[in-house]
Specification:
By secondary structure, the chain is mostly beta strands. The strands form three sheets. Strands 1-2-3-4-5 form a five-stranded antiparallel beta sheet, with no helix packed on it. Strands 6-13-11-8 form a four-stranded antiparallel beta sheet, with no helix packed on it. A four-stranded antiparallel beta sheet has the order 10-9-7-12, with no helix packed on it. It has strands at about 5-10, 15-25, 25-30, 35-40, 45, 60, 65-70, 80, 85-90, 95-100, 105-110, 115, 120-130. It folds into two domains: about 5-45, no CATH class; about 60-130, RNA polymerase II/Efflux pump adaptor protein, barrel-sandwich hybrid domain (OB fold (Dihydrolipoamide Acetyltransferase, E2P), Beta Barrel), CATH 2.40.50. The chain contains no helices and 13 strands.
C-alpha cells in the first residue's frame, strides 16, 4: 500500500500555489521549482539545508530526496540557461526533472543514469558565466 500522489494547495511566500505531492506519515512532501519541501502543521520549510530565501539560485543542483537517477541531460563544459532540464530522477514513486537554477557553464556532472543518490547529494555544478557590470 503506497502513498498516492495528490494535488495540494500550499501557501509559499504569501501566494497559494498548486503542487503535486504525497502524504507520508503525516508529512506532505512535494517538489516545487527545483526544491523539495515538506508541509506539516501549516508550516512549509525547504529541505535544501540553508534558509529558503537566499539559497535557491546557487548553481548547485542537489538531489531533493533519496532516489534513482533515470536520465542525465547535462554535459560538463556545456552552457545552460535557467530552466534547462539537467537530470530526471525517481523518488517516492514520483518523477522529478531537476533544472538549471542559473545560466552558466556546467562545471561538473556527478551522476549518471541508474545511480542511487542521497538527500542533498550534489548532482550538477553550474558556474556563472561572465559578471554583470
Amino acid at each position: 500500500m503506497g502513498a498516492k500522489v495528490r494535488r495540494f494547495e500550499i501557501e509559499l511566500n504569501g501566494r497559494i500555489e498548486p503542487v503535486w505531492g504525497q502524504r507520508i506519515r503525516g508529512v506532505v512532501w512535494f517538489h516545487w521549482r527545483g526544491q523539495t519541501y515538506t508541509a506539516q502543521d501549516d508550516e512549509v520549510r525547504t529541505r535544501r539545508g540553508q534558509g529558503a530565501s537566499g539559497s535557491s539560485h546557487s548553481g548547485q543542483i542537489q538531489a531533493p530526496m533519496p532516489g534513482k537517477v533515470t536520465k542525465v541531460f547535462a554535459n560538463a563544459g556545456h552552457e545552460v540557461a535557467v530552466g534547462a532540464p539537467l537530470v530526471v530522477m525517481e523518488a517516492m514513486k514520483m518523477e522529478y526533472t531537476l533544472v538549471a537554477d542559473i545560466s552558466g557553464r556546467i562545471e561538473a556532472v556527478n551522476c549518471k543514469a541508474g545511480d542511487q543518490v542521497a538527500l542533498h547529494q550534489l548532482l550538477i555544478k553550474i558556474g556563472e558565466t561572465g559578471a554583470t557590470a
